[in-house]
Known about the structure:
This protein is about 40% helix and about 20% strand. By secondary structure, it is of the alpha/beta class.
Amino acid sequence: MTGTTTPGTPSLLRAMNDRAALDLLLEHGPLSRTRIGRLTGLSKPTASQLLARLEAAGLVVATGTSGGRPGPSAQLYGVNPRAAHVAGLDVTPSGIVAAVADLTGEVVASHELPYAEGTEAVDRVTSALGGAVKEAGLARSDIHRVVIATPGSFDPHTGALRYAEHLPGWHSPTLLEELAAALPMPVGYENDVNLAAVAEQRLGAARGHGDFVLLWNEEGLGAALVLGGRLHRGWTGGAGEVGFLPVPGHPLVRQVTRVNSGGYQALAGVEVVPGMAAALGIATPPGAEAGTPVDAAVALLAQAAGHPEGANLRLLQQYATALATGLAALVAVLDPEIVVLAGAVTAAGGDVLRGLVEDELADLAPSRPRLVSGAVRERPVLRGALESALATTRDEVFDTSRR
Length: 403
């Protein structure tokens, strides 16, 4: 039996050209008809027809004219930012930050809602989202899709939130149903560290890389695993919960979900940095003692990276060894192309800490992935939630085959 192929129909080919042009406009910004024709390989008449079609559909708008070059000015076209809006929410134990972005990815509004004991999770979500939508001058019905980031992950088989016992009010077995009933748009849910990886993959240090590990280091240690360009979430959504990883150099932790910690967290988590520093005779910088463990660790590592000699250098070396110990297990199993070090704690150690971790990992792991620092520094989890919502929304809104 011989296989057959169905030739592309004119409408399908037009839709493919439309999508290619829209993606180019997102990548390059406003372009002229001639430039779009060159980049897509379309003739001038076909490019003109394409732009007229997309303008009539409300997907592109004239943005001005080119200037500063010899010859007549050319009309420029860009993606219509108001063709759709999305929202992202970053949920933490201390509160929720919500943001709204237009179709080009520009954040047009944000709203922060601190945690208030006694309020239901659904009420907090709708209030945070409502605040951001109002700031954007929109209605909730204008939001095409929302993606919510949480610590831990929702089990795809039961709908229950796992690996996040410290998140108050989010463990009702009917929570997802209640949120779906309360919100008028499609809602996606994703682990916060996974969304930090989405941000790095689309906008930051992991662009162009299909196999990488992102190690997140703030209140807890977590990892995101991207294999073949796709997030690997695991059977229960718990892939990357590396804080529970048994590691050499620390006693085994049993009943890890009950104590909400494990060997790697106890060995290299944020809470160990002040103890390491104290043992070396390094005092926590003034102003950081009364803050959170993250504040103390960030201050100590930033101080050490600023003057990496003597006791400061030994602190960085010891912490690098602790971080590399757990990373070695991930590298041995996954053999990633790169490892992205992200989160406030490792960022505080800068290139000095990153280089020390890379050197240690070369001694502990059979392969030698390149270690890079996260490049998305402004709320990477929230940025990843917006990017995730935008990816799905663009696929839907840019599909002109259905028009």
